[in-house]
Structures are given as C-alpha cells and as structure tokens.
Amino acid sequence: MSESIKSLELLAEQFGKLGGVGKRTAMRLAFSVVDMTEAEAERFAEAILEAKRNIHCCPVCQNLTDLEVCPICSDLSRDRTTVCVVADTKSLIAIEKVREYNGVYHVLHGMLSPMQNITPDDIKLRELIERVASEDIKEVIIATNPTTEGEATAMYISRLLKPAGIKVTRIANGIPVGGELEFADAHTLACAFDGRKEY
Amino acid sequence: MSESIKSLELLAEQFGKLGGVGKRTAMRLAFSVVDMTEAEAERFAEAILEAKRNIHCCPVCQNLTDLEVCPICSDLSRDRTTVCVVADTKSLIAIEKVREYNGVYHVLHGMLSPMQNITPDDIKLRELIERVASEDIKEVIIATNPTTEGEATAMYISRLLKPAGIKVTRIANGIPVGGELEFADAHTLACAFDGRKEY
Q: A6-54 adopts what CATH topology?
C-alpha cells in the first residue's frame, strides 16, 4: 500500500540515490520530510540547490569551495612550495583537522582504477602537472588512501613528476593498510606525515 | 576547514535534522548531493517540495495520502464496519503488506504520552470519536505498538468507545513486547490479528 502514496515513494527513491542509503532508510528519511513544516521543507530543498549552485572546484587546487578561490589557497601564511595531493575533499578535511600540515593541496577527485575504467584523464591530474610546471613547487606529498587504487595513483604521479626534478614523497603507513584516510584519528594522521618517505 | 564550505555545512545541517541521521552521516549525504548533476539535485529538491505539497491526511481515516481520499477508504471492496486504529502510517503500511486485514483504518499520528506531554488533543482521537458516532462501525481493532504509550493509548480508546456499545479489540501479543509494529514480520503480524481479544 505504500506505493499508493506516490509523492512519498518518489521522495524515498531520491533519498535512495544518496551514498550508502538503503531502501528502509530512504523511506524513513522520506517520512521525516513529511513530518517537517512547509517552511522547513523549503529550507531543505533550498539548501540542496544552493550547495549545488555555489560549490565548485577551486581553480588553483581543485578543492571544493563556494568562494572564488578556496580559503587554503587564499591563506598567505601557508607554504605554497609544498603540495599535498589527496583523492577527495573528505581526505583534505581530515588532514586539516590535525593542524599539522601547513602547505597547500591538490585534490584529484578520484583515483586511477583500471577495474572501474578511471584513467588519468578522469581525475584532476593535468591540472597538477600544469601547476607543477608553472609554480615554484619544491615537494609534492602524495596522501592518497593506502588501497590498491591509492597506491597505483601515487606511483603514477611519482613517475610523472620525478623527471621534473621535484621531490615526491608518500605519507607513511601510519594509516592502517586497506583503511580510509577519512576515518583516521589525528595521531595516526600526524605519524603518517612525519614518517613520509621519498620515492 | 570543512566549515569554510558554507553551503556544504548548511546542507549537512539540514540532513542532520532528519530522523536518525548523525553528524558524520549528514556530511556524507551532503557530499553525495555535491556529486550529483545539477539536474539530479533539482529533481531531489523538487521531490521534497512535491511530497510536502501533495501529502496530507485522508479526511476519512487520517492516513497520509496524495489523493483526495486515500486508496483504502475509496476501495469499495473493504469492510467499512471494522476499523483498525494505528499510531502512524508506517504501522498501516506494515499491516497492509500482510494482506490479511480487509477492514479500514484510523491513523492517530501519535500515541498518548504524559512524559512527552502528548494529550488526547494532540492526536487524531476526536476524529475517531466523530467517525464512530456517525458511521456504522461494528468493531474497532486497536493496533498501537505494545509499548507503554501504545498500551495506554489502547486502554484510553477502549474506555472511550466501550460505553457506545462498540466491540473494541486489541491485537494479540504475537508482536514481541517492547518491539515496534513497523518491523514485525508477516507471520507475527498475522498471529497478532488472529489472536485479538475483546476488552
């Protein structure tokens, strides 16, 4: 009978498209919306459209931002000669929380994966190469996840940048192998930065 | 640094208001929206507004519906002399899935709770009394959850309706005590209907 409330079904379907939301959770979330006031539902819908409208990639580091240039790239106190390469904004946020790293970033928005057919053209690699060619960068720290894709991506980047005479390092295995950078605790992340090795 | 992406923070805050969504999940869901295409985000926002605009209470049984009268109340093959009283639409959906019950419903949209200050005026009780007074109803089956609030609500309704000479029954304890009707399996729910006792 739930199929008879068409609008509820359609909303649950939309929730079901979000990452990690199953059928039962999607229906629960849809019911939450019905329990909202009209004004609350409008604020929610507006927040979705605003986020989509305002958030874009920083032209310098490709980090997600709703400003013209992201706050990290605009921060003059940060060391622009060190670039930390991460797979996504979630990893960047995790590293920023530790307050150990004072360089800048480059966000790839993905990792190389022959299995999922993700090639160098599908991630922000060209932007990294252009940046290394045009800016005064002394070290590139690769902080992709220590998974198969993350290691392959790190290896690919190091081979690409080494010939240009740039120091390319990889964060240490303080992060449990197979785990996700996003969920690492502050201490583990700090260790990983301290113990980084040159390729 | 996540606080620097204001639109993302605001969206995560909105997700956090939905039932059972913690801070980390809210942020994950907000990132899912950023990963959507513009068209997908618009469809999502529209589904929220549509659900809120279209879904209202059926004037007969108070069930949520986006039609003028809900499909159960408009179904002429259903027995209108038997009314099953449930706390919410989720319970109704659970019962409908079993396909054992052929009467109609009355949705209270809540249960009496002195602790949470929910009084008879806060739920759709007046509508039930008016219905019993004006329609030809032979039996009222109370199918609220077997929790403290559910039992208290059932007791309150039975005392209210018994003097009017109506048969008031309670679904049997096939449902595990303390559990939630929404999550009961089909067989347990069927047992509960079969074993109902008169007050």
A: Helicase, Ruva Protein; domain 3 (1.10.8)
